[in-house]
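[Automated response] Your request has been received and processed.

Submitted sequence:
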Amino acid sequence: MAQLKRILAGAMALCMAGAVFTACGDKTSDDSKSGGDAGKTTLKDVEPAKAEDLVNTGKKYNIYVWNTEFKERFEKYYWDQRDEALWDGVEVNWVTNPNDDNNYQTKLDEAIKGQNDAADDDKIDMFLVEADYAMKYVNSDAPLDVIGEVGLTKDDLANQYKYTQDVMTDSSGTLKGVSWQATPGLFMYNAEYAKQVLGTDDPAEVQAAVADWDKFAETAQKMKDAGIFMVSGFDDTYRCFSNNVSAPWVTDGKITIDPQISAWVEQTKDYTDKGFNNKTSLWDENWTAGQKIDGKVFGYFYSTWGIPFCLLPNTLDDPEGEQAEGNGGYGKWRACAGPQSYFWGGTWICGAYGSDNIAITRDIMLKLTCDTATMKSITENEQDYTNNKAAIKELIDGGYTNPFLGGQDHLSLLSEAADKIDLSNKVSAYDQGCNEEFQGAMKDYFLGNATYDEALATFKTNITTKYGDLTMD
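Generated structure:
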């Protein structure tokens, strides 16, 4: 009943504090300014909310998202197994705002700010967040306590990867969100080019050729000599560096550039000058075109979602046609660990403070993030790496193969990578903006249109304009 009492008492008022909000009246969260302590806490012992005590009075269930990914998972893997009694007379409503230029966060923040005064059927019931800005919401009262207010237990959550819980755990040990996916990354490479240049497409042998950044550069030179770009553009290796930093972008309101970020700049400038990349930018047409089997790009660094949502459809001659050998690059890509372990992205589900349908939130979280059979089915059918160690182990032990990757078992590689992910003191509330603005500012430097210092000055101007409460030397 803790959530209901909190709403009825009216003790919580959502407010904005610069770019980071807190849902506790005038209280300012120090953790949100410093980046928090993701990965440094364990879940505190708290009595799980009892299912029979959860609120379930609303007639409309509002879910805030930025694309259709969760909607597709929801409709295909949750809806048929939903608790129909909970949903009797309740309509699901998807509120979609694109993620570009912080648009999703802006719209969500406006809705959260008005949550107390909203009509019951207009209240947010569930919202999604990404790793790059999750701490902004974790260190506020906007998301419900997954255990104490939604009612999941530690046993329910036991099979999830620890890092997926770390990123959504506040400094007091309260879990604020859960995910159906884990997002370790691999190096996806064009098997035809591997055979042409390296004499083999065997993942173990290709891994030996890209095992560290020195070997990666040696192989890049061989690819260039054969008229093939090692990677497509400026941003391709970025997550290998940005997710291995030693400190977050922002600490105590001050922006710092980690040595790993500086290493990415140095490498990318070198690759651009040597012709190892095609000078493309993430998501642009030329970047996407390189994923065709004859696209003249050897490989892409992709997280787990990259296969079903990007690489697979981008490689096909006919995206609406049969997914089988003969349709473009289907079956002609492979995966290896690459020179540096990393992760990229991830999506978390949060129950919203003020929701009048918390019982439904519990049902969704249980079935879409904790149920081993459901998680196994999602991985089998969608090529998504689900956040359930037991499901992944069952698939590997059962001889799982990926037809898009020519029958390769890439789950074993992903499992090894997932266990290495450590988010200790690496996440801040400002990561999306910092990553996007820094990558954008550096392009003129890579292209020779500005010096590094000039590009850095552009970044400083843009980021302090976006986040007026931050400083940078």
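Summary generated for your ticket: Confidence is low (pLDDT under 50) at residues 1-40. Residues 147 and 154 are 8 Å apart (CA to CA).
If you did not submit this request, please reply to this message.
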